[in-house]
Amino acid sequence: ESADVVVLGAGPAGLVLGVLLHTAGIDCVVLERASRTHVQTRARAGFLAPNTVRILERHGLADGLHSSGRRHGTCEFRTEDGRFRLDYGALGNGGHHHVYPQQNLVTDLLTHYLAIGGRIRFHTEAVVVRDADGTQPYVTTREPDGRPARWTARYVAGCDGRHGAARRSLPPGAVRHHQHDHGVTWLGLLAEAPPSLDAVGYAIHARGFAGHMARTQDVTRYYLQWQRGTPADSWSEQRIWDELDARMRAEDHGPLRRGGLLERAVFDLTCDVVEPLRHGSLFLAGDAASLLAPAAAKGANLAVLEAEILAEALTGALVRGDTTGLDTYSDRCLAHIWRAQEFTGWMTRLLHATSDTSDRDDHGAGSFFLAALQRSRLNSLRTSRIHQDWFAENYVGV
Ligand code: FAD
User: Fold this and answer.
1) What 3 state SS string does 131-194 have?
2) Whose CA is nearest to atom 45 of ligand 1?
3) Where is the FAD-binding domain positioned along the sequence (predicted)?
4) How many CB atoms lie within 10 A of CB 371?
5) Atom of ligand 1 nearest to the CA of 213
6) Residue 166: strand pairing partners
7) If you take atom 31 of ligand 1, which residue's CA is the nearest one?
8) Atom 33 (ligand 1): residue with closest C-alpha?
């Protein structure tokens, strides 16, 4: 089988790209390894930046987030020096987030794509992209019935995440792969409980970081800094809630609203960037291009932005024969990616006293120096209007 553009993966990147290409009259197909139900129920991101909302609005994809998403513009830091709130929606350039669960966005995108006649194959796993630097690239797949198949294409868009086929297909030496480990591990939780505060909550505590992020009226995301290598199920629900209460300082600021834990996942705060985001006619977008630690909620927003840039570039090449957009795609996206990586790294150091090197004081204790830097950083954010404006602009920016 064939298509002018074969898109791998039906996450935010692949679906925005599919919608935009199909709307531009380009022959494309989306190949997705999982089932429709799986992609429509996978809970991940939830904070959409103003630029993401503008992109979705521009292409008629924002009805759902306007009808059931909520504007959000406050975060609350809880530290040993008390708590402080930043109304970031009223600081910096005045940008807000829209809280809209990623699975709802994916459902909207998919519904729209199918309604306009877009082609998608579920249960179809891309195995490898071949001849990306030749004249006839193709993707080998494992079809729903298990038999192998081949999709020929003029261009292939790798939107299949960090462990997808696109990255795997890059020949050694074709690109550079920059990786960084922030040295921290989080336990991500999804609780069947209403939000406990009307703000993103960041708790900095000697026992470790804890975070609170609203999702819907009935479901809330929590994060706990976690011992690397410890399985997600090694603590009881009771112990997890007690620990969240302790780190969020429930004694001082009120208890958390508890509920059953729907999901637990352990992930190391690692990040990476592939450079350039192109090998011949294979282009990478979203998590396949760059993985960000979730501390600053940038991943899904970058995925949507890159998909729009790539759609314009592919449309230029296929409709007008103008390949300038394809030639500049990587550099344009990398500028946004490194900016987002930088702020994510800064956020990680705001929330954790970490380092790649081991710092020791006279008494052999590890982290006094870094903890002092972190406290100073937080105090600056608490008191300096310029620092707050800088934070606000970067927090909602992509
Ligand atoms: P994905 O959404 O991962 O989609 C890739 C698709 O490719 C999947 O459907 C997968 O099944 C499919 N696939 C994989 N391999 C193959 C293959 N070989 N063949 C065919 N299909 C394949 N980001 C934010 O902006 N804000 C947040 O608040 C936020 N919170 C997060 C919280 C958590 C716990 C996590 C894990 C992530 C969070 N992120 C957040 C990051 C965000 O979810 C990702 O950056 C985003 O999903 C990337 O979109 P994508 O389309 O590139 O990839």
Assistant:
1) CCCCCCCEEEEECCCCCEEEEEEEEEEECCCCCCHHHHCCCCCCCEEEEEEEEEEEEEEEECCC
2) 299
3) 3-343
4) 17
5) 28
6) none
7) 45
8) 44
One-letter amino acid at 313 equals A
Question: Taking the domains of the chain in order of start, what are their residue ranges?
Answer: 2-46+101-175+276-346, 182-269
CATH number of 2-46+101-175+276-346: 3.50.50.60
C-alpha to C-alpha distance for 87 and 370, rounded to whole angstroms:
27
Average pLDDT, the chain: 94
Q: Per CATH, is 182-269 categorized as 1.10.3720.10?
A: no
Averaging pLDDT over each range in 50-64, 352-366, 370-384, which range is the top one?
Answer: 50-64
pLDDT 10s digits, 315-330 = 999 999 999 999 999 9
Q: What is the largest CA-CA distance in the chain?
A: 68
In 3D space, the residue among 190, 184, 11, 192 whose CA is nearest the CA of residue 113 turns out to be 11
Q: Which residues are catalytic?
A: 72, 202, 294, 298, 395
Indicate whether 365 pLDDT > 50: no
What ligand 1 atom has the least distance to the C-alpha of 298?
25
Q: What is the pLDDT of residues 36-90, one digit of tens each?
A: 999 999 988 899 999 999 999 999 999 999 999 999 999 999 999 999 999 999 9
What are the pocket residues of ligand 1 if the criterion is a CB atom closer than 6 Å to any ligand atom? 8-14, 31-34, 39, 44-47, 102, 125-126, 159-161, 164-165, 188, 286-287, 294, 297-301, 303
Of 42-56, 90-104, 223-237, 342-356, which gets the smallest average pLDDT?
A: 342-356
* CB neighbours of residue 191 within 10 Å: 27
Interface predicted TM-score (ipTM) of this complex, two decimals: 0.97
For a mutational test of ligand 1's pocket, the pick from 160, 186, 272, 333, i.e. the residue with the most ligand atoms closer than 8 A to its C-beta, is: 160
Q: Smallest Cα–Cα separation from 129: which of 282, 290, 307, 288? A: 282
3-state SS assignment for residue 345: helix
Ligand 1 centroid – CA 165 distance (Å): 14
Per the DSSP assignment, residues forming a β-bridge with 331 are none
83 CA distance to ligand 1 centroid (A)? 33
